[in-house]
Design a protein that fits this description.
Helices cover 0% and strands 52% of the residues. The protein is mainly beta and 112 residues long. The strands form two sheets. Strands 2, 4, 5, 6, 9, 10 and 11 form a seven-stranded mixed beta sheet that branches. A four-stranded antiparallel beta sheet has the order 1-3-8-7, with no helix packed on it. The chain is globular, with a radius of gyration of 13 Å.
Length: 112
């Protein structure tokens, strides 16, 4: 059974940091590109970041460039999104996506 388990969300003050994790199982994680997508309350989904199967190439939305870092450890079937200098507008549910599958989402709330 294919599973993507996202975690690491929470409440953080502006300027703070969080690291999201996405643990994959049931397929060959290292064979697929993966991405993080977020959806803020009342808004459509936004691609935040993506990386290729080997982790050597990354993409970032302009809104997070310089603040977020995507990485992956294929030996652990896990991808990460390090989020620094968080802003209130980063508040959203964050989903990991790979191999045509979606994780359940993890809520990030940036508020003082």
């Amino acid at each position: 059974e294919v599973q993507l388990q996202a975690s690491g969300g929470g409440l953080v003050q502006p300027g703070g940091s969080l690291r999201l994790s996405c643990v994959a199982s049931g397929f060959t994680f290292g064979s697929y590109d993966m991405s993080w997508v977020r959806q803020a309350p009342g808004k459509g989904p936004e691609y935040v970041s993506a990386t290729n199967s080997g982790g050597g190439t990354s993409y970032y939305a302009d809104s997070v460039k310089g603040r977020f870092t995507i990485s992956r450890d294929n030996a652990k079937n896990t991808a990460y999104l390090q989020m620094d200098s968080l802003k209130p507008e980063d508040t959203a549910v964050y989903y990991c996506n790979t191999a045509g599958h979606w994780g359940q989402g993890t809520l990030v709330t940036v508020s003082s």
